[in-house]
Design a protein that fits this description.
Elements: E1 3-6, E2 17-20, H1 24-32, H2 46-53, H3 66-77, E3 80-85, H4 91-105, E4 111-115, H5 118-131, E5 137-139, H6 144-151, E6 157-161, H7 164-169, E7 170-179, E8 182-191, H8 193-200, E9 205-209, H9 220-231, E10 234-238, H10 248-258, H11 267-274, E11 275-279, E12 285-289, H12 294-301, E13 305-308, E14 323-327, H13 331-346, H14 351-366, E15 368-372, E16 378-382, H15 387-398, E17 404-409, H16 412-425, E18 429-432, H17 439-451, E19 457-461, H18 462-465, E20 476-481, H19 488-496, E21 508-514, H20 518-527, H21 532-537
Helix pairs in contact: 2-3, 3-4, 4-5, 13-14
């Protein structure tokens, strides 16, 4: 482990700690020890893969893709594995087939599938009906009392959102802490041993869907997942985006699956092997990923995981390049935008002010401005003229009759503006965003969009509608971004809701963009796989000013 030794401080600015590092010999052995790699399986012809898989398992209810056969082969060999597959490449069907295989051959009795949200849970339920309808599945959703009652029912697969873990495994605990010299009582959710044991004894398999959301080792959800991992011998992780800007998350995810077999038993070993360190002024240690070791990290990750990108799979449907519908701000918007950019120039590195102004510029191009009044109430000013809304109306009028369209937005007020426009056009729509209260209502709206021919539009923000929602590709081939997310992963995931297996038509993506504004910069960064917001708050304010 890395230990920090306190040093006496004088009046100098010397760091408070020195870092005692793990032996270089230990790190060298960790980096160079033999590990498996499964890349050669990608080169096998389909007939060869079928000859390896089908004698062991042929209970497929839907014909597997070629890359799924590779994954099936690996999953049958290893009960702990990570599937780093791009969106739309059939991770859910793969996992369900593996659950059936291990129930028939390896002693798996009951599996808990954890997903990000209640909508994702519903998607899993539909996937089971499609790929393995003989599995008995139960959704652990509802109030606390309802969840505990449902848990008593026997099933092969239990489906639950990550937040539900705290219902079954933790309880509120009163704790004393000091704030500003006073002792106060705070309530905190804490794992309860009795509850944890009672819950864990019901499963010997766990599936972590979108496992990249579990990157924070200090969160309650991660700690509860770690208990699940320690208890269950069958462990699978799934994600198309293994980590964001912090590769440290890879260790957290990987450890839940193979308990350090791939990336080391401790985070300290992983950090020292792939990062450089520097003791900062406050006595802590700053770790920076060593880009020169990126290739080696990718090699090591292949030990108990396999990565497939969509371009490696030849059967995906076609998609046309995104089409930009460029608009010009109204005179009123231009005035507000000019004021906002002037404020950006005056921030002088003030992070909070810069963040606020960045959001303000995006709101202006969307057609409104948010602010707080003297009573600290949140209010919005809507511009009299909104070119983006007009462009949206024109676009929708050109959509073939009977076609369904997914419209993504970022801000809640943008969702309101879109819905108001659809009301004026008398177009049937449903929402899947923060505007809709309750998971049950969101699920009902999703089903209405996919099944009701009168509902032509799904209005969704990229958080609620961009991840874990499956079925849009069966009914829609048009995607509109009223405003773009700043995160490249979020953009890709949102598009992949429609451009994925099951899509029978060419996919069309439209982006509404205000000329000479932050919209242009956001798209430029997305194309380069970068996040404009990160660039701005890092001090590159000029990115918002140069046009």
């Amino acid at each position: 482990m890395i230990r920090r030794r306190r040093q006496k401080l004088g009046k100098s600015n010397a760091p408070r700690y020195a870092v005692n590092l793990i032996s270089p010999k230990v790190i060298s052995e960790f980096l160079h020890r033999p590990r498996d790699s499964w890349q050669h399986l990608k080169e096998l012809p389909r007939k060869k893969l079928e000859s390896l898989v089908y004698p062991q398992f042929d209970d497929f209810h839907t014909e597997p893709w070629t890359h799924q056969l590779v994954c099936q082969l690996l999953g049958m060999a290893f009960p702990q594995f990570e599937w780093l597959l791009d969106m739309g490449l059939g991770k859910s069907g793969l996992i369900l087939n593996l659950i059936v295989y291990h129930m028939l051959n390896s002693g798996l009795t009951s599996t808990l599938i954890l997903a990000p949200s209640a909508v994702n849970v519903e998607t899993w339920s539909e996937q089971i009906a499609t790929h393995q309808p003989d599995l008995r599945a139960i959704k652990l959703l509802g109030t606390q009392e309802e969840r505990f009652n449902i848990l008593e029912e026997p099933a092969d697969v239990y489906l639950m959102n990550y937040a539900g873990l705290a219902v079954y495994m933790a309880e509120l605990e009163e704790r004393k802490k000091k704030e500003k010299g006073k002792t106060v009582t705070v309530n905190k959710m804490t794992p309860n041993r009795r509850l944890v044991e009672n819950f864990l004894n019901r499963f010997n398999g766990v599936v972590l869907d979108e496992e990249h959301l579990l990157g924070s080792r200090d969160s309650l959800v991660y700690r509860l997942c770690r208990r699940l991992s320690n208890h269950c011998p069958f462990r699978y992780g799934m994600t198309g985006t293994p980590f964001g800007s912090d590769p440290t998350q890879l260790w957290s995810q990987s450890y839940l699956i193979d308990h350090g077999e791939t990336l080391g038993k401790t985070l300290a070993i992983f950090r020292q092997a792939f990062f450089t360190h520097k003791v900062n002024h406050w006595g802590g240690v700053d770790w920076t990923f060593d880009q020169s070791k990126k290739a080696r990290l990718h090699e090591i990750l292949q030990h108990r995981s396999i990565r497939y990108e969509d371009h490696e799979c030849q059967d995906l449907p076609q998609m046309s390049p995104p089409e930009h519908r460029v608009v010009t701000l109204s005179e009123e918007q231009k005035l507000y935008y000019l004021r906002a950019t002037q404020r950006i120039k005056e921030t002088h590195g003030d992070w909070e002010s810069l963040k606020s102004m960045f959001i303000r510029t995006r709101q202006i191009t969307a057609g409104f401005v948010g602010f707080k009044n003297e009573e600290d109430e949140r209010l919005e000013i809507q511009f009299a003229q909104n070119p983006k809304i007009e462009a949206l109306k024109e676009l929708l009028e050109c959509v073939p009759v009977g076609s369904k369209v997914v419209i993504y937005h970022e801000f809640l007020w943008s969702g309101r503006l879109i819905c108001k426009a659809l009301d004026e056009m008398k177009i049937g729509y449903v929402q899947l965003s923060g505007l809709v209260k309750g998971a049950k209502n969101k699920i009902e709206n999703f089903h209405r969009f996919t099944k009701d021919p009168k509902v032509q539009i799904l209005v969704a923000n990229t958080v609620s509608g961009g991840t874990g929602v499956d079925g849009l590709q069966m009914v829609s081939r048009f995607v509109v971004f009223y405003e773009l997310p700043v995160d490249p992963k979020s953009f890709k995931q949102a598009v992949k809701r429609v451009h994925r297996p099951g899509q029978q038509n060419r996919v069309y993506v439209y982006i509404l963009e205000a000329a000479k504004t932050v919209d242009v910069k956001v798209w430029g960064y997305l194309e380069a796989g970068k996040n404009l917001f990160d660039a701005v708050i890092s001090g590159r304010t000029q990115e918002l000013l140069d046009f």
